[in-house]
Each structure stands twice: as C-alpha cells, then as structure tokens.
C-alpha cells in the first residue's frame, strides 16, 4: 500500500501510540495533558507509563485494555483513549475502565481509603447523539449532587468531540486550540503550519513524519491505517445503506397505509371528493409513520451489514460486538 500522506494519522492505533505512548515522546503526552486536560489545575511535571491491560479479581471478570495508561508524579492516574466509532454503552465502558485505577490503589492492612485523582480522557472521532445539535468540543464530567455541587472531586471524565472543532489555522489562539487542530488535521497537512511553531510541536511533527519511519514501523502503520480506513468505510457504508433502506421501506409502507386511510375518509365524505382528499391526508400520515418504522428496520439491517463486513475482514468477534451491539450468537449466525 502506497502512503501518500506526509504525517501519521493519530486516530490509528499505531499513530496514537507512536506520538504519545513511547518514552522518547513522553513530553508530548505531558504537554497535551497539561494544556487540554488540566488547563486550570496544578500541572504535572512528569509521568510514568503503567500497564495498559487490567484483569478483574476473578477469572470471569472482563478484561480491560486501555490505549494509554499513565501515572503522574503526584499519583494521578490518566486513561487516554482514541475512540474511532460510536458503540453501544460507550459511557458505561468509560466508568468501567475508571474502576481499575481506583481498585489498584487499595493497600493491604490498615488503609484510610485515600485515593489519587483519576482522569479518563476520550478523544472522539464522532459526536454523542444527544450533542448532535450542539457545538461544544470539550465535555468535563464529575459526580454532582441534586444542587449541582461537586460531590467528589477526584474522578473526572473528559470527552473531546473532534468533529465539533472547526477553528481554522488563523483562528488558533491558545495551546488548547493548537493541540486540537493538530490532532484533527495532522494526516492532511503537507507542511507544518505557521501557527504551530512552538518547540513542543516541532518535536511532534518530527515524530509524525512517515518518511522517517523504520521498515518495521512503516509496516505496522500500514496495517493500522488499513484497519482504520476499513472500519470507517464499513461504518459510512452502513449508515448510507441504513438511510436508503429506511427511506424505501418507509415510502412503501406509507403509500399502503395512506391509501387505506384515504379510502376510509373518502367513503365518509363522498365517493368522488372523499377519495381525493382522504388519500392525500392518509399518504402524508402514513409516510411519516412508515419512515419511522423503516429507519428502525434500517438500523437493524445496518448493524448486520457492519457485522458481515467486519467478519469478511476477519475482525475479532469481541470488537464486532462492541461496534454493533449484537450478541455473539447473532454475529455467528451471519457467517
């Protein structure tokens, strides 16, 4: 596969970990966390990478694998993830992941239960459904009481909805703006923007330059990029197919229901005038109801389409379950 891009795509697993998950580039992650995650708090001076795979206390407990997991000098825990596509129960998963760095702080013997701060950071290549009509990029979530007062200060969830970040290079003012801009536009840039001349971005662009990759790194990136593009294509295709199927089913059901209701109305008001007026009103109401049913059926078919495409790409069943919300039995039946 020929790579025409100059810089690595940070939304691929390889690209994200190349820029933020290696010891030589640790200062990139520190600056990102200080400027984007902790802009109004005490900054971290250093951090160490921790094991990004956690197992439950019991054999049957589900395994949790984070993209990046690190610990600050004051004991703060940071889980940082790139999320490429929507999935069912994504927020539940964030809470589940946050439970591991909490539990690992437990000490044997006498312990006062004092915990270090936990930050779960999600860099999202999509927007939450409830935020589709809003333009907020950064969401900071804490536990609050009924009076909107913070109940617990040490557990924070931060989500960055990248599609909502629309600033141009000329509009970049803060380090926060610049970090979001470079994350969103890096794989599409041909040269380093004038607005990103700080030393930290000099290092980022050097680390991101594909031409400097070793043969092994290039092979790893190509595989990661292919997976990212295939996944994105599957999702885009499923959405388009779902919308088309929903419109088609809705149109046909709407026509049928509209004709039936139109005939009933027509009989009440007179054969000639009633049929004409009833069909018009019935079709309008029927199409609306039919589209609603069609969209629902379309979503079900879309999930199956995603699963079939993913099976064709030999993706693991566990990943397909997360992408579609289908059970293992339902996915196996599609083979």
Describe this structure in words.
Strand 7 and strand 8 (about 150-160) form a beta hairpin. This protein has two domains: about 15-210, no CATH class; about 230-330, no CATH class. Helix 6 (about 215-270) packs antiparallel against helix 7. The chain has helices at about 15-20, 25-35, 90-105, 175-185, 200-210, 215-270, 270-310, 315-325, 330; strands at about 45-50, 55, 65, 70, 75-85, 120-125, 140-145, 150-160. The strands form two sheets. It has a six-stranded mixed beta sheet with strand order 1-4-5-6-8-7, with helices on both faces. Strands 2-3 form a two-stranded antiparallel ribbon. With about 325 residues, the chain is of the alpha/beta class. InterPro entries: RpnA. This is Putative transposase/invertase (TIGR01784 family). It comes from Runella defluvii.
Helix-strand blueprint:
Layout (H helix, E strand, L loop, with lengths): L12 H8 L5 H12 L9 E3 L3 E2 L9 E2 L2 E5 L4 E7 L6 H14 L14 E7 L13 E7 L5 E12 L13 H11 L13 H10 L6 H55 L1 H42 L4 H8 L3 H5 L3
Parallel strand pairs: 5-6, 6-8
Antiparallel strand pairs: 1-4, 2-3, 4-5, 7-8
């Amino acid at each position: 596969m020929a790579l025409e891009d100059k810089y690595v795509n940070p939304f691929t697993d390889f690209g994200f970990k190349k820029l933020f998950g290696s010891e030589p580039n640790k200062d990139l992650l520190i600056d990102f966390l200080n400027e984007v995650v902790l802009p109004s708090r005490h900054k971290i001076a250093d951090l160490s990478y921790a094991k990004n795979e956690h197992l439950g206390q019991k054999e049957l407990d589900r395994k949790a694998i984070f993209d990046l997991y690190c610990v600050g000098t004051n004991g703060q825990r940071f889980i940082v993830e790139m999320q490429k596509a929507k999935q069912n129960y994504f927020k539940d998963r964030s809470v589940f992941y946050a439970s591991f760095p909490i539990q690992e702080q437990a000490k044997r013997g006498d312990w006062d239960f004092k915990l270090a701060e936990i930050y779960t950071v999600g860099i999202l290549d999509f927007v939450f459904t409830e935020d589709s009509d809003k333009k907020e990029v950064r969401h900071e979530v804490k536990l609050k009481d009924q009076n909107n007062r913070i109940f617990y200060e040490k557990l924070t969830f931060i989500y960055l909805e990248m599609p909502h970040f629309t600033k141009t290079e000329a509009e970049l003012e803060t380090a926060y703006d610049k970090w979001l801009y470079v994350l969103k536009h890096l794989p599409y840039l041909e040269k380093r923007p004038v607005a990103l001349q700080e030393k930290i971005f000099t290092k980022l662009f050097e680390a991101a330059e594909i031409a400097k990759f070793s043969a092994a790194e290039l092979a790893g990136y190509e595989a990661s990029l292919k997976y990212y593009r295939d996944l994105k294509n599957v999702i885009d295709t499923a959405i388009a197919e779902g919308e088309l199927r929903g419109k088609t089913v809705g149109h046909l059901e709407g026509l049928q229901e509209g004709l039936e209701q139109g005939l009933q109305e027509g009989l009440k008001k007179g054969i000639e005038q009633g049929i004409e007026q009833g069909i018009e009103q019935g079709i309008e109401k029927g199409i609306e109801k039919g589209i609603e049913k069609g969209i629902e059926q379309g979503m079900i078919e879309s999930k199956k389409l995603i699963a079939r495409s993913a099976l064709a790409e030999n993706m693991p069943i566990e990943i397909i379950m997360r992408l579609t919300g289908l059970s293992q039995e339902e996915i196996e039946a599609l083979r």
